[in-house]
Design goal:
There is one protein chain. This protein is mainly beta. Helices cover 1% and strands 50% of the residues. Strands 2, 3, 66, 67 and 68 form a five-stranded antiparallel sheet that branches. Strands 16, 17, 18, 19 and 20 form a five-stranded antiparallel sheet that branches. A hairpin with a 5-residue loop joins β62 (839-846) and β63.
Amino acid sequence: MVSRVVFVFLLISTVFSQFDWIDGGAPIRQGQHIEWQRTAGSGDSGEIIFAWSDTRDSMRDVYVQKIDSQGNKLWGEKGIAVTTAYGRQEDPLLVGDDNGGAFIIWIDYRNEPDTKGDVYAQHVLSDGSLVWSLEGQPIVVKEGAQRNPNMCKDGNGGAYIIWKDFTLGQYEHVYATHISSDNQIIKPGEGVPIMTNDSHHNGISLEIAGLGEAAMAWVDDRNGNLDIFGQRMLADHENDTINTLWSTVEEGGKAICDAEGDQNYAKITYAAGCCGTEGITVTTWQDDRNQNFDIYMQYLWVNGDPFFQAYPEGLPLTDGLNSSQTKPRVKADDSGAYIVWYSDQNGNSDIYAQKVIASQDDPIQWTENGLSICTAQDAQTGARLTVSGNGGAYFTWQDDRNGGDEADVYIQHISSDNVITMPENGLIISNASLIQKSPVVRNDGSGNAFVLWEDGRRGSGAIFSQHLNSNGQLTLSENGMEIYYGVDGKSDNIKSERINDTDILLYWEDRENGVNSTYNFGKIVSNDYGYTYQNAISVPNASLSDNPAQLNAEVKKVGNNLFMGFLQDNFQAGVDPFEGYSQYFQILNLPSLDLVGDANGTWLNPTDFFQYDFISEFGRDLDLLVNDDNTLFYFTSLSEFFAGPDIYVRKVGIDGQVYWDAPKNLTNDPASDNFVRNVFNTPDGGAFIVFDKIGSENYSNITIMSQDGENVEGFPKRVCEIDSNQFIEDAVDVGVGIFVIWRDNRLDGSSDIYGQLFDYSGNPQGPEDGIVIAEYDNDQTNAKITYHDTLNEVLVCWEDYESGIDYNLACSTVNLANLNVNDIFGRPTYEIATGQGDQINVDTYKAENGNYMIVWEDSRNNSDENLQTHTDIYYQEINTQGEYIYGDNGIAVCDSYHIQTEPKISLYAKSDSQQSYVIYWTDLRSTGKDLLYNIYAQSISHDHQLSIDDSYPVELSLTSVYPNPFNPEVNINFYNPSSEKISVNIYDLNGKLIETLYNNQLNSGSHTFTWNAEKYSSGIYVVRLKSSASVISTKISLMK
């Protein structure tokens, strides 16, 4: 029997902890996550201005750019921020100011949670300067939701803004304001009510109407069905109000069409110069008065009366078709109105259009029921149009004709004499790979056009542009010019591998190249990484393999290289959708992270012996174990044919050599699902494997593997024989064996935490049914364990649902000398965090200064008002006297917006006087409409100097062997000055090795090993200690 006691030696240390990097953490991986709202306006002649939002600085902000017809970026390489205020700003709308600049409005959540929101504005002048600060100008800041803003220019260098106020009862009220050309605002921060009647005002279309006025059209339910109503308004800055012109505020507008059935999808635009007068507008809508979806339109006089005398309820543009015509849009000038819509008359979504002039006799100018703009195969969607300025019109759309996962952008032009000037079914603007979508088109003031769209050819989103003339001649690059690219996609499953005393590799799964690919990216981080945001993001991410389908990766440092094992998703890789997952590995150089060998990785099973076809929801299923000879054991849970997963192992060298003819099966139980959880080296060069067996019964197990990949006789075996559900939580090497913890429902069906210390041969050292660590009411679960070598104990922390209300965080220590739990009158040793909200996803680490470091996910700052989960990262330290360093309940590492989750902690930089630890987590602070996953980290340093009393040696030394002579046990005391591999062996006088007490990595300090010689005969034996630099031997005498 081998036992071990660790003495606490003299520590003279100054302990000072601080967060080293910027508040809230430094970005390890921060995507830009572009949101493109198809909002653009004209600058000066030959220019276009457009806006979007992105998260380049972690929170979502609004940006603008102006380009000319040659593609020159006039407002900086990456655009201009119009706001960088705290919180989330999104959904920008933009209109030109007719002076080369633009007005921009957006929804702003700095003051309220994201179920509500306010409206802010900015004015960007022609040279790119801002009229207001980067905080933006409040348009409406009121408690409650102010949503659905819209904006149009007024024709005099100013702009109208409207929005809905959802705080005033069952029906939302509509408010408005006006920004003059000299930037004066009517009722800033509150606005003026313009519709307060009892009805819903859905899909309000707002446009310039001439005469300094604005016009609106919307879908209204005041009559029981859906009708089209409208309103016109005029700003009155002298009296600080907005006047409504077609009705009173209380009446809420004027009916444009209240025919039978439902009218929907109303749009309105200005027909400048039409009929020889100012102020004529045009509306269009979808109409089912004939029990079929048709398209109608109407010209409106300045007073809102219908122009077409024979069609007071609207002029039909389609009639008698046995199909649906839907979602019209309209633009107009003095040559007429152009209306575009979708039609399914050919079996899919096609695009049709019509030109209508203000004539009582013959208003329809093109083919009856519309001119086909595009009737290509598959769907055409997202159509937009603009007048050309020369009496014609441009139409653009998203097109699926090329099939698969592709979507492209097309355009068509019809001249003033009604001639289609581009190829039938449109001209390709971009047919690059993957998806191009959401195009918008604007004329450039010279009869030509700009097209802008969202582009996914690089996997993540970008904004692209093209400029062309009416004959289809392109000015910019084929398939368009990239204006701005931003990484998006999900990044998660972050892990780490320490490189040396100054650097650590953080790596994660990343989908920045699209949802159909998964890469592992990594970043080597040192202590000077995150002092500023810009410093952090300037360090590039590196792809750890070019394989496009990497899952469940594990990275280990071996010599001067990195070895990454991963599972290739064969469907995602396009190899064979029926072959599940394959084992791969990639070797990388340090510190460059250059790929060695095949850049797509090396297949570990080239004989196609079997394929892994199931990834467990219960946890990770790939583990690597580094051996002394620069080889690795590669463990995975693999399924052969239709059997449940078994645990297999391969041996691989850092040079890429694969050992053994085939994988070794360590569980061989096709009736159950076996999932590897933890693996450890054993002194004899084999491995200690901890795993779960899932089936009709759920048991936690261990097995001992020899160095040639075979189970030692008697293994696998269960961690205990109690008939209950058991699931492995964690395990740790404690120098004399492996301490395993699991959750167990043996009492009343709730989960409790149990543990056991096994020696390296797999023999339990504690009670056969396990050590009771946490056995309280309700569930204790999701436990983590860490080993304290100087205190000779383990710390176990878990989520505790004893209250039945929230999960609290509790920890207890277990004394390894007697395996007693150091609880306090039946309570946990430490109650780390209690109170409001859940404390979950704990991780623990034993610091070099002897403190325990504990980090977790905490929802104490969540509020009912949020209506959405808000979790932060919290931290605590416990010193060697059991005292909290940061008071009750810890301190916040990161309490940024939305969710921070799954924190981990690791040592990454170490010197004689200072040690630094990195806390890293998955971060959703950029979340808006979609959940956006990024990676953040924080550093905390200990200024800690270890001073050893002069009586302590500076090299490996044997301090005492007692008793000597002995029977049957002898204690071998020695001092190890540095953490390194140590062997403790017993030889007979012939030099034959008869027992190995220890052969593994050992922390610095004083150590005692006990040899029990019960099975040996009396005689003289030799104790031999060996390190990398020293060998010490002494004789001992066994006398029976």
